[in-house]
Write a structure and sequence with these properties.
2 helices, alpha+beta, 128 residues
Length: 128
């Protein structure tokens, strides 16, 4: 097993130099698990921010030979759980296959005051 921590140059860079965006755990058979740090995005509305988050997640996964179709687990942090349906509408545009395992939490705030949503994922990359 090999572990690589990465901030892929082909994806938006982290907001701080104190964390890695992707942890790749590669198995001997060439398969891998990708743990992607929580992502936030700019935008005035939850819809805009959610779209930006999933676009960033897609870019981070792509840099490691994966896609949103490989996501097996997702954790979502919302500052207003009453807007869950608005978030879900955008999420379903990006996660179109069998839904991954999922946890959604309401939090009082995120590390950036303007952030309304943060999403982290785990993806399973099969041998290609």
């Amino acid at each position: 097993m090999q572990i690589t921590l990465d901030n892929p140059a082909s994806a938006p860079q982290p907001l701080s130099p104190y964390y890695s965006q992707v942890a790749r755990i590669e198995h001997a058979d060439g398969s891998a698990l990708l743990f992607v740090s929580g992502q936030i995005a700019e935008g005035d509305t939850l819809t805009e921010q959610t779209r930006g988050v999933f676009e960033t997640l897609a870019a981070l996964l792509e840099a490691h030979g994966a896609s949103l179709a490989d996501v097996v687990s997702i954790r979502t942090y919302l500052t207003d759980i009453a807007k869950l349906e608005e978030y879900g509408t955008v999420r379903r545009q990006f996660l179109t296959g069998t839904p991954p395992t999922s946890m959604t939490f309401e939090v009082s705030r995120l590390f950036r005051p303007e952030a309304l949503v943060e999403v982290e994922v785990v993806a399973a990359v099969p041998v290609r």
